[in-house]
Write a structure and sequence with these properties.
It is built from ten helices and seven strands. By secondary structure, it is an alpha/beta fold.
């Protein structure tokens, strides 16, 4: 039996939007966005197994498991259909949910997402990511700086490093690496009619920028809308929360 993901429900309304976090963060990544979301929608922050409110929830940490957990949470919330917002690794999980149960999804908002084809990493890149997963200050700081265009101050970098360290134990982050570096579900999502809003940050790593991502995503999703946030890198929930909130709400209302 699937155990329920740790979560919190904010607001109420006919529509339910589930917010999924990234690899180096938990639900706390979404907190800066919350003041800018209207109360007429039911907003749900959820943590993957091993993270945040789900820290004690053990598992295999696979993509199929994560997608099944999200669907179980939606069932628990009584959602026949719902909207799903996924950030980075959470964006890949959101796409897996859409592939598994397309009729359940009203729409997707994918924020700087890992594409359905995964984030392929050679041995050197994978070793670097495992170093980041261990949580050392230097490795985490460099990762955050690289993903935000080396343009933000030490205060932001330090705050993001703290969020990453508190989100999950190093072993959990390491376990999740396979989820997005060894998975390809592009065949499963190709042709899905789910409306998808793709949001990219102009200062993100080249792999995640709009030009590269649009080429990938337009092959799979016939109802694709693309938006670039000029002042963001890989962390729009932290860098430009008001702008991101507006983009999410606009898409969900539409």
């Amino acid at each position: 039996m699937t155990k329920l993901l740790g979560h919190r429900v904010l607001g109420s309304g006919r529509k339910t939007v589930i917010l999924l976090h990234e690899w180096l963060g938990d639900h706390n990544n979404w907190r800066p966005v919350l003041p800018y979301l209207t109360s007429g929608t039911r907003w749900v922050m959820a943590d993957f197994r091993g993270y945040g409110w789900s820290a004690r929830l053990k598992g295999d940490y696979t993509l199929d498991e994560a997608a099944s957990d999200v669907l179980a949470l939606a069932d628990h919330l009584g959602c026949g259909k719902f909207h799903l917002v996924g950030h980075s690794m959470g964006g890949l999980v959101a796409q897996a949910v859409a592939a598994a149960k397309p009729a359940r999804l009203s729409s997707l908002v994918l924020v700087c997402p890992v594409p359905a084809s995964g984030f392929k990493a050679d041995a050197a890149r994978l070793a670097s990511m495992r170093t980041v997963a261990k949580g050392g200050a230097k490795a985490l700081s460099e990762a955050v700086q690289a993903r935000t265009g080396n343009r933000l101050g030490a205060g932001f970098v330090s705050a993001k490093v703290r969020l990453a360290r508190r989100a999950a134990q190093p072993g959990i982050k390491d376990a999740y690496l396979s989820l997005f570096t060894e998975t390809d579900i592009s065949g499963a999502v190709a042709g899905l009619k789910t409306p998808v809003r793709l949001i990219c940050g102009a200062h993100d790593l080249p792999f995640y920028r709009l030009a590269a991502q649009r080429k990938r995503f337009q092959k799979w999703y016939p109802h694709l809308d693309c938006v670039e946030i000029a002042e963001a890198g890989h962390y729009p929930p932290l860098e430009t929360p008001a702008r991101l909130a507006g983009l999410i709400e606009d898409w969900v209302k539409g």
